[in-house]
Amino acid sequence: MITSKNPYNGEEIAQIKEFDQADINKALDLADNTFKTWRETSYKHRSELMMKAAEELKENKQEYARMITLEMGKPISQSISEIEKCAWVCEYYAENAEKHLENEIIETDADTSYVSYEPIGVVLAVMPWNYPFWQVFRFAAPALMAGNIGVLKHASNVMQSAENIQKVFERAGFPKGCFQNLPISSSKVEGILRDKRVKAATLTGSKPAGSSVASIAGEEIKKTVLELGGSNALVIFKDANIEEAVKTCVQARFQNTGQSCIAGKRLIVHEDIADSFIKKFKEQVSELKSGDPSEEDTFIGVLSREDLAEDLEKQVNDSVEQGAKIVLGGKRKGTYFEPTIISNVTKEMPIFKEETFGPAISITTFKDDEEAVSLVNYSDFGLGVSIFTEDVGRAKRLVPMFDDGAVFVNELVKSDPRLPFGGTKISGYGRELSAHGIREFVNRKTVYFNSYW
Ligand code: NAP
Fold first, then answer.
1. Quick one: pLDDT at residue 453?
2. Band of the pLDDT at 452, cuts 50, 70, 90?
3. Which of 107, 188, 311, 342 is the most core-located residue (most Cβ within 10 A)?
4. Which of 261, 338, 432, 440 is the catalytic position?
5. What is the dihedral of CA 433, 437, 438, 441, to 10 degrees?
6. In whole angstroms, what is the distance from residue 141 CA to residue 137 CA?
């Protein structure tokens, strides 16, 4: 049995029976068989169903959001926004998949030659708990629209949300095998990955999980997309609009109680403005309301598991021992971690070098543009960076110097169905969303027509 527990009060929510080998076999058979017919369906048909999935999400957003909040402690207003965003990605791919995958004519010596983008079959998605719906939908909407089939291994602490996602597709009218949730522990992933009926895998999660899945898939010569951790920097240049930058940085770090791969985890501030920036930043962070995640006005909930809160506590304490200074917060009570600001951080400290997955932000200062870029790139992670400056020329000059998968100017790094999303270095490879995302799990087939007459 896999147990779902509310991280806010420790109460058990449900016991879910784990699939045994026979259940997995049955599910993979259904997935494989469904592919044979699903791949033949028209974009028009798939779009109609995907639009219905969007409607289902919007109509029942309270129900789905409530379970997210119960299972992983996300404040309810943010859980509702997550469901709305899932509806958006369904609508986006319902409207754009055909265009993204239309044949690409290439002029050659042939009568006609082109690339056609064709589905590959069953794709395994291994997903994390931090955005239990969004992470899955940003994979599933393009995968199903491309004619593929999805099987989900979700994080063990959000198994009811995983069941709800399958329910969304069933209620929308998708054939039963198009998207299936497999309630399993991670030890069963290897067998599924090696199964001939599974053609590829996508994983969003930590480096160890990504590395394990990619190694096994590599042995089997199966394609993978990895969306792993991040330690995004927020760089505040001397000429930044401080008022606006402070507001954006508070959101960038503290939404989802800091448990986001693309959160701005390292504030890198020009030394001349550091004191005034920190003062304003502290004022705004102090005003964030912590509390019961099921209450509408709560902004900071709890961390999704106590061991994760303990990890963060250790990173903070170890950094303080190495000379960092607590500006705000720093304490943990069970799964609750106070919104925390830490200054005097150097690049060797854990809160700078490692990913921090909770409401804590490090502050480091810099002297010039070169030092700022070097501090950003020092990280092993490469998901994204936000830079704050009023000088467009500086921003344009600096954009190519960052190693990351995304640079946002005067904005927090965010995912948007219209834009590709993904990292470099140990943040992973491959892209989700936009035309780039839907083309990850397709056969880019070269077609060449010649005639002898
Ligand atoms: P995690 O421990 O890696 O878990 C993610 C998923 O992988 C879960 O379903 C987990 O199942 C499974 N898993 C764990 N170890 C595995 C293994 N050896 N083989 C196969 N599957 C395995 O990560 P997490 O703690 O849930 O999530 C936090 C991490 O995800 C952070 O590093 C965060 O930055 C990253 N993340 C990245 C993105 C992105 O888009 N780049 C988005 C969100 C989160 P169990 O729950 O059963 O262990």
1. 73
2. confident
3. 342
4. 261
5. -140
6. 6
The whole model's pTM is what? 0.97
Give the pLDDT confidence score for residue 21 in this predicted structure: 97
DSSP 140: H
SS3 assignment, position 333: strand
**What pLDDT, in 10s, does the model give residues 332-362?**
999 999 999 999 999 999 999 999 999 999 9
CA-closest residue to ligand 1 atom 18: 209
Cα 415 to the center of its chain, rounded Å: 8
Q: Is the CB of 261 under 6 A from ligand 1?
A: yes
Catalytic residue of the set 227, 354, 432, 440: 227
The torsion angles phi and psi of 88, rounded to 5 degrees, stand at -60, -45
Domains and CATH numbers, the chain: 2-228+427-449 (3.40.605.10), 232-416 (3.40.309.10)
User: In the block, which residue shows the tokens 């998968």?
Assistant: 405
User: Distance (Å, rounded) from C-alpha 264 to C-alpha 287?
Assistant: 19
Q: Model confidence over 233-266: pLDDT tens digits?
A: 999 999 999 999 999 999 999 999 999 999 999 9
Q: Is the distance from CB of 433 to CB of 138 less than 8 angstroms?
A: yes
In angstroms, the CA 116 to CA 443 distance is 8
In sequence order, what are the beta bridge partners of 260?
Answer: none
> How many helices (DSSP H) and strands (DSSP E) are in the chain?
15, 22
227 an active-site residue? Answer: yes
The question of whether 261 is a catalytic residue gets the answer yes
